[in-house]
Amino acid sequence: KNMFIEQFCRYAKISTPSNPNATTFPSSQCQFEMQDELFRELSQLDSVRLEKTDKCLLYAYYNEQNIQDRLVICTHIDISFDAPNQNIKPQIHTFNGDDIILNGTSIKLDAPLGSTIITSDGTTLLGGDDKAGVSIAVLLLKFLVHHKITNIPSICFVFTPDEEIGHGTDNISMEKLIGGCKNASGLTLDGKRFKQVTCDTFNAWSFSISCSGVTTHAGSAFHAMDCSLSRMVSLISDFQREFKDPSVSKDDEGYVFIKDCQLETKFSRISGLLRSFYGQEIESFKEKIKQLCDLRLPPSYNLEFKFQYPNMREFISAEMEAKYQKICAKHGGCFKKFRGGTDGSFLSMKGLPSPDIWDGAANYHSIQEYVVVEEALEALQVA
Ligand SMILES: [Zn+2]
């Protein structure tokens, strides 16, 4: 436990937000600092082979003499850009049932009495997503090395940058992950609580719709002005009637989310996200959007859909799912759909089925973020 706390706090202090607006890879240079720290720490371990890339990926191999079976454990080193994230100061508490007050704000905790809790000082996020996962992975590797455990598959630990902006696996080498192993499977440890295990993530697409209008002097606009703004506003109100947005969608319901808009007479544009656990529902969202655009936006418009990530379920066998359900039941966890995606969604699509298990982090992407240490340690046992 002390090792987990020491490691986690050391990693959390290295601020590593990814940058959604960058065109470089990785999206922020600060992520190299974390890669360096892990490289330095893992170099000290016997019988571990390391490979780092200039795209900020780090691979750590253990027990490579098993050339048949391979387990890939994936965690991400970047943290969210959604909340203040500089100068992170982790604080350690013992949960006594009361709210924890940080910087004048009280944080409601949901954890067993006596749990060890790590928070920030209340001015920044903590980065438990996914530094908790990284800490679990490193501790596991240290444990295997220390106890010289070899009657297991070969393991490739991969630490990815830019997961938070959906680019964690862009530069990943499946060859490096799997090697020549015949039986390879994956696992991600990423940002969940209450011992949640998931084999089911959203299918994710984005959309962008634009149309142009014709401006005139308002006094002589009769039958001459074509206001793209009013066409787009009609479309937006159709969306509100036809689709659920994220604020009214829960459990296994999908949504259509207008995230951004620009509304002017001359030019208007909306963009957003399509999410659903079911591929068919995504197709029906697209079909309906096309119909509504045809109805509201003539004489002309531009509609684009872009694939983001798939539901990992498509790639996970019934056998594998049953195995994870069993693990989950054994630890009193919850086997649940996850209303988001992980690096594991991409890895599964690329041929390495990779369910996700909890890392003990809660309230992620906010200054109220916290980690329940005992829950993280239980994930370590599962891994
Ligand atoms: Zn994460």
UniProtKB/TrEMBL annotation:
It holds the Pfam family Peptidase_M20. GO terms for molecular function: hydrolase activity. Keywords: Zinc. The keyword Zinc applies. It comes from the Eukaryota. Coiled coil: none annotated. Its cofactor is Zn(2+). InterPro entries: Bact_exopeptidase_dim_dom, Peptidase_M20. This is Peptidase T. It comes from Trepomonas sp. PC1.
